[in-house]
Every structure is written in structure tokens, then in C-alpha cells.
Amino acid sequence: MAFSVHDICEVFFNLEEKYGLNYQEIQGCYPWQLIRMFLYYDITRRTQTFGAPQQQSLSIFDKIKSFTPFVKNSIVHNPFSGGQKKDILIFDHPRKVIYNGEYCDIYSNFLVDFLKDSYSFEVLEAPYLNKHFTKKQSYIKYTDRIQLGSYIYKKFNKVEFTDKEKSLISTVRKELEDAFNLEINLEWILTIHILNFTHDYKKYTELFKKREPKLVFVVVAYENQAIVAAAKDLGITVVELQHGTITDYHLGYSYPKKTRLNGDIKYFPDKILTFGDYWINDETCPIDAKNIIPIGFPYFESQSKDFINIPVNDNQVLFISQGVIGKYLSKVAFELASELKEHNIIYKLHPGEYATWRENYPKLVEATSFDNFKVIDNSETPLYELFAKSNYQVGAFSTAIYEGLMFNCKTFILDVPGVEYLNDLINKNFVFKITNVNDLINNLDGFEPSEYDKNFFFKNLDTKLLKSVIDNG
Fold first, then answer.
1. Which neighbouring-strand residues pair with 319?
2. Rounded Cα distance, 387 and 320, in Å
3. 398, 410 in Cβ contact below 8 A?
4. Could you report the per-residue pLDDT of 153-183, keeping only the tens digit for each?
5. How much is the pLDDT for 201?
6. For residue 464, what are the CA distances in angstroms to 10, 127, 269?
7. Is-contact 104 97, C-beta < 8 A?
8. CB under 8 Å to 103, separation ≥6 — which residues?
9. What is the largest CA-CA distance in the chain?
10. Which residues contact 174 (CB under 8 A, 6 or more apart)?
């Protein structure tokens, strides 16, 4: 049986309402909030709702080879070293891209630039694929020490569930297994997440007591609940920086009212700074609308300026890939290139697909023999240049789809799992939903999108508003 994203989310929401899962305290924490996204990704993968992400994994040799620098970083870039107090701590996104000739986190880099002259701050950087890519800076410390400690902690500790806790876990596990026809080792999943949280919460509490920040900024709060919890318990305001698409079906942000039996979601940030007014529905977000603040997307603002007015190729179609739906999208791209020889087809891979696309997408390999087809498997070609030169874009639910709309790309969304994320755009006729290549061909020129306010998606940086957030907490 095939499951849609809507189906899976509704099972989660109903269980949360039925058993009050977001408020069930086990072993001193609220573990359902800890595992919610992990479990969602696991179920979507195992039910083949989504394909497996294509990002290259680390080999055993790579992991062994990286252990020494992991230990070195824990000492040399120890986040606990030094006695300075800091006004602000920033936990940035681990994945870095080249921007202005250097690796950086595109979601928090603007904040660093804003703070440099007037505030004391520190950036806490987690490794990405066990490496650090940014240039060494005095204000950057690494979280390797905390991650290494968590690894060791899990080796020497275990969780002993009470009979009451075991009964609840067994009941929820059975309902999940019946709903999705899967075996789910819920007790193991809970154990790993509880141990991680227990260790990390303690260490981040120590760090915050040492640095005494008034604000903590974090990218991807739903993967950093220990940071959020430790800060909030010490009365420190936690502000999340938007890093991607936020919808009513994104379980990192969506908590419908029936799932919020007691109001507060313990491990949710106090405020979220968004790219624009569009992004969060306060009916499903568990914080007040006044704390959802449209600050802008400075990376897009800066990078798009060079390309916004360059000539468009009327016959260029840009495909925006993602690892979890690439098997569907690559097939449509191949078929389109086969049918429309006069059109220029560009297939832009996600960075996580660069190393593996030849093994995973045989239709793409075959399509590269066509004169009108090109695969972009590097980050040297600016994405915004591709948008600017393309008259059409085709994709699923990547944040890049919204960026393409900013360049007036006529947009087609393939009806694959996750299409629910873009229901709002489809219903407003900003984009057109297709089921196959014939749908695409038949509507390529006929579809006329409704007008939309581009600033609604990505506004320019509002420095006054940002300063107000920083100064007033």
C-alpha cells in the first residue's frame, strides 16, 4: 500500500491527540518530541513514500581516518575554553557552501556580519561529514567535543524503562506497526534519542552557564532539541533561523491544535525568523504569530542581483532534483528531452546527489547522450544563473522552487509523495501540478500562473527588525 505524506502525518497527529504524546515525560524528558522527525523520515523511507536520500555516506575507513581530527578539534576548538561571556551564541547549519569565495552557512552568515561591530558573540559549528569547511576564525568554536562525549556516553549508559513506560511504548509501537505494516523498534529509537538528549542537555547547560548569553540562535531547531531545552530552562531566548520550506506537513514545525493538549511544546524555539511573510501558518505552529518574524533572506537578496536581468532562453527547462524524489523526476526529464528536441533541458542535481547519480539514475546517464540535455553535478554553476536563463522549472518540493518563482520561471510540480507541501501554491495557481511528461508537454506554454508578490516569499533584510529582535530578546 502506498502512503502519502498526508496519510503519515495524520497518523502522527492522531496518536499525539489520543495519547498526549508530546507531553509524555519519560526518563526526565519528552522523548516523542525528540523522535518525531526521525520516525517520520524512517517511515517515509521504509514505506517507499520517499526514496532514500542520495547523499554519500562515510565509509568505515573515512570514519576511522576522521577520528583523530575529531579528538584534535575537541581540544583545539573546545567550546568550553576561555572564560568570556557572550551576548549571543549562534549554532549554524553544518552544511556549508561557497559564498564570496569562502565556505559559509548561508542561513546565518548575514547575522555574523550584522553582529561583528556591536555585539559579543560566538559561533558553535558542528562537523559536516566529520569535517569542518569554514575558514578558522576567533569567534568560531566546534561542537566536536560534545558530539564525541555523546558517542562515549551512549556506549556506557542505558535506559531502564518503567513498566508503565514500557506499556505506553508497546501500545504506540503496535498502532504504528498496524498503520504502516512495518516492524518498528520504538524502544531502541527512544533509547538512543534519550541518551543523546541527556548527555547533550547537560553539556549545553554547562556551556550556557559559562557564556551567559541572552540570545541563542539556531538553524534546524528540530535536530537540536537539547540546545533549545537547555537554553529555555535557563531563561535564554531561543531564536530559529529559517533554512528551508516550512509547511503544514513539515513535522519539524507543524503541531495542529489537537496535538497541543497543554499548549506549550517544550523543545520548540521561542521565535522564528523567516524569509518572508508567507512561510508559517500560526494555526499549526505552536508559538504566537507575533513571534514569527519575517526578517528576509539576505543570501538570496545578495546572490540574485547579478542574474535578475540577464536574457532568458525561452526554450530552456530547468529540473530541480532532490534525492528523495530523484528517481521520479529523472525519468520525466529523460522523457521530455526525448520528445522536445528543440528545448534545452537542464537537470540540476542536489549536492547530496553529486557523487551517486550515475549509479542511482540510469535514465540521466542515458539522457546525457542527447544534444539537448545537460546534467549539472557541481556547485560551480550558480543556481540563480540557471533560474535566470530558464523559462520553465520542474520539481517537487525543494525550497529552490520558490527561488525559481522569484525569477519568473513558469513552474510545474510533479505529483509525487510530498506534493502536499506545495498545495497552497497549486491551489492559488502560482504553479501547475503534473502527473507525467504528457501533462508537462501539454501545459508547457498554455499554463498562465496567477500573479504573486515576490516579497511575500523572500523579502530584503529588514535590519531595523533584526536589531529589535537582538536588543529586545
1. 347, 394
2. 10
3. no
4. 999 999 999 999 999 999 999 999 999 999 9
5. 98
6. 40, 32, 22
7. yes
8. 96, 97, 133, 134, 135
9. 68
10. none
Whether residue 53 is predicted with pLDDT greater than 80 in this model: the reply is: no
Nearest one of 319, 262, 382 to 17, comparing CA atoms: 262
Backbone angles phi, psi at 22, to 5 degrees: -70, -10
Q: Are residues 196 and 65 part of one domain?
A: yes
Q: Which domain range does residue 274 map to?
A: 1-297+458-473
Would you say 87 and 214 are in contact if contact means Cβ atoms under 8 Å apart? yes
- With b for 16 or more beta-carbon neighbours within 10 A and e for fewer, the 51-63 pattern comes to bebbeeeeeeeee
The closest of 191, 209, 212, 213 to 201, measured between CA atoms, is: 209
Output the CA torsion sign for 287, 215, 243, 305.
Answer: positive
Model-wide pTM > 0.85 = yes
Cell 500560526 belongs to 282
Which residue is listed with cell 502560482? Answer: 430
By the 10 Å C-beta count (0-12 exposed, 13-18 middle, 19+ buried), 334 is classed as buried
CA-wise closest residue to 130 among 84, 61, 184: 61
**Whether residue 187 has pLDDT greater than 60:** yes
Domain tally, the chain: 2
User: What type of residue is 397?
Assistant: F
Q: What is the dihedral of CA 289, 290, 292, 295, to 10 degrees?
A: 140
Q: Are 291 and 328 part of one and the same domain?
A: no
Q: Looking at the predicted structure, is the pLDDT value of residue 98 above 90?
A: no
User: Does one domain contain both 464 and 339?
Assistant: no
Do 253 and 363 sit in the same domain of this protein?
Answer: no
The pLDDT of residue 340? 96
335 touches 437 (CB < 8 A): yes
pLDDT in tens, 247-301: 999 999 999 999 998 778 999 999 999 999 999 887 899 999 999 999 999 999 9
| DSSP states along 207-265 | HHHHH--SEEEEESGGG-HHHHHHHHHTT-EEEEEP-S---TT-TTT---GGG-TTS--
User: How far apart (Å, rounded) are the C-alpha atoms in residues 216 and 238?
Assistant: 5
State the cell numbers at 375.
546534467
Task: Tell me, yes or no, whether 472 and 418 share the same domain.
Answer: no
> What cell does 322 get?
532532490
Q: What's the residue count for the chain?
A: 473
Same-domain check for residues 238 and 291: yes
Give the C-alpha distances (Å, rounded to integers) separating 115 from 89, 109, 120, 231, 303: 11, 10, 7, 20, 21
